[in-house]
Amino acid sequence: MRVDDFLDEVAAETGIAGSEEPIQVSVVSDVLGRDYGLSGGLIPIATEKDDTFRLEAGGRPYLVKVSPSSEAADIVDLQTSALLHLEEVAPELPVQRLVRTRAGGVAVELETDQAPSRTLRVFDFVPGTLLADAQPSAAQLGDAGAMLAKIGSTLAEFDHPREERLLLWDLAHFHRLRRLLDSVRDPGHRSLAERVMDEFEQEVVPVLGTLRRQVVHGDYSPYNVVVEPGASPFITGVIDFGDTVRTTTVFDIAVMTANQIGRDEHDPWAAAAAFIRGYRAERALDDTELATLRIAGLARLALRALVAEWRAEQSPDRQEYVMSHASHDWIHLAVAASTDRRDVARLLSAHTC
């Protein structure tokens, strides 16, 4: 396959290739009533690819998600199966729960004019504050790291026929996505992303085959972690398993790392280090994994900025949403990348502050 073709293929399998007509609310309402016995007001929620709604029914909130027609049913089943595995093996973890249909199922295939069909699922709505809207302490970031480690340990023995899916957000493919650079208009931003890609290819790609791999959450970001500030436990919910995939374990850690680096220009890696310490307190990382954390975090942040630019160009109708999650990424990336790599390595490998 030509490198130029890879971006198109991975975007299509990720379910974000191009635009799609929103599902009719009446269709969703009919399925909820028929298959779940639920009725109530549906409030749309902006997300990356699914048609998502908050439902108020019988005095209880729910989350309703309808997969895009571009996302195959077996990929949705991968996500669903991972959630069911966590529910069965580690029910104490605050992972979002699936609501069963009247017949005991966990999903409904919708009959629409689109092909392939779309899948509707209903989840418990997790109340609380998103970590992205909180001001967590170092200890609370450590709690977030420990929670990801627990989820990772529980998913370590999970497998699924479609776990090796192609996913745009999987850093295992980062070095194959140089075509994204063509959508970057700012020369400084493009140069910065090229430097990160070069370093990733030089330092991470040669050791990919030696790094631990497993099925992971895939998008453990501040937007998918629900917290209760000032309370214990701090982490009250983990949501959105839409990017579940088998990949290198370090790349799962890199998601939250990317969201923490560069925000404090005086100490750009401190928050990420607190998160990683929490993870390591629950689950060990070997020397090779530790050595890749710095560039993996930078790569994930660069990838988000690059994909935002590309998607804004490809889908102008979703420009506001995709750019809202990446508005400061270039600034944070520049700050984090300018920090002396030896200082970062020492900070990330330390067990204490």
Automatic annotation (TrEMBL):
- Localization terms from the record: Cytoplasm
Q: Is Ribonucleoprotein a UniProt keyword of this protein?
A: no
Q: What is its main location?
A: cytoplasm
**Keywords from the named record:** Cytoplasm, Kinase, Transferase
Q: Which residues form the Aminoglycoside phosphotransferase domain?
A: 50-277
- Its EC number(s): 2.7.1.81
What reaction(s) does this enzyme catalyze? (5R)-5-hydroxy-L-lysine + GTP = (5R)-5-phosphooxy-L-lysine + GDP + H(+)
Gene3D superfamilies in alphabetical order: 3.90.1200.10
Q: Which GO terms describe its cellular component?
A: cytoplasm
Q: GO molecular-function annotation terms?
A: hydroxylysine kinase activity
Q: Which PANTHER family match?
A: AMINOGLYCOSIDE PHOSPHOTRANSFERASE DOMAIN-CONTAINING PROTEIN-RELATED (PTHR21064), HYDROXYLYSINE KINASE (PTHR21064:SF1)
| Function comment | Catalyzes the GTP-dependent phosphorylation of 5-hydroxy-L-lysine.
Protein name as catalogued: Hydroxylysine kinase
Source species, please? Saccharopolyspora karakumensis
